[in-house]
Amino acid sequence: MNKFRATTLVTAILVLIVGAWAQRKAPLALKQTIPVTGLNKDGDFDHFAADVPGHRLFLTAEDNSAVEIFDLGAGKLVHTITDVKAPHSMVYRADLKKLFIVDGGAGELRIYDSDSYKPTGSVKLRDDADSMTYDPSTKYM
Q1: What's residue 44's pLDDT?
Q2: Separation CA 137–CA 26 (nearest Å)
Q3: What was the pLDDT predicted at 3?
Q4: Rounded to the nearest 5°, which phi and psi values hold at 62?
Q5: Residue 8: inside a domain, yes or no?
Q6: Does residue 4 sit within a domain?
Q7: Within its chain, how far is the Cα of 35 from the centroid?
Q8: Alpha carbons 51 and 94: distance in angstroms, whole number
Q9: Helix (H) or strand (E) holding 4
């Protein structure tokens, strides 16, 4: 019983220390705004992927059947991928120079070269597929 109490006490102290440390961090600050132009429909922009070293942001415009690619250094839209029906989540793999996009409308994982944005392949999925993630330690998608 004493071991349980000691473990509980140590856990509680750690939680309080981490909570206090997290509260001291400065809040996020807006650095820039980039207009999203050329989209015909308002809609869902809930999936993003980032190429931090390349200063790019990938955005799914699901209701517009498009993936928008922004150059964050230049502050502008640099490319739009339009051969997707309902793009959902994405994973950017810098080691492969590939952008993987789940297209729920087509029930496919679409693979694009991240330099030319040309399609390089696809994997059939179930209709309305959505979420995806990548584990760099196992290299499993």
Answers
A1: 67
A2: 31
A3: 67
A4: -55, -50
A5: no
A6: no
A7: 19
A8: 7
A9: helix 2-24
Question: What pLDDT score does 101 carry?
Answer: 94
Flag residues of the chain having pLDDT under 70.
1-7, 9-10, 12, 14, 16, 18-25, 43-44
Q: What is the pTM of this model?
A: 0.76
The CATH code of the domain that includes 84 is 2.130.10.10
**Residue numbers of the domain that contains 69:** 29-141
- What's the confidence (pLDDT) of residue 30? 86
What's residue 53's pLDDT? 93
Cα 118 to Cα 86: distance, rounded to the nearest angstrom:
18
Does residue 1 form part of some domain? no
Residue 91 near residue 82, CB atoms below 8 Å:
no
Q: Which residues contact 65 (CB under 8 A, 6 or more apart)?
A: 82, 84, 85, 86, 87, 105
Judged on CB neighbours under 10 Å (0-12, 13-18, 19+), 97 is: middle
b/e string for 9-44 if b means 16 or more Cβ within 10 A? eeeeeeeeeeeeeeeeeeeeeeeeeeeeeeeeeeee
Q: How many structural domains does the chain have?
A: 1
> What pLDDT is recorded for position 81?
95
| Cα(107)–Cα(105) distance, integer angstroms | 6
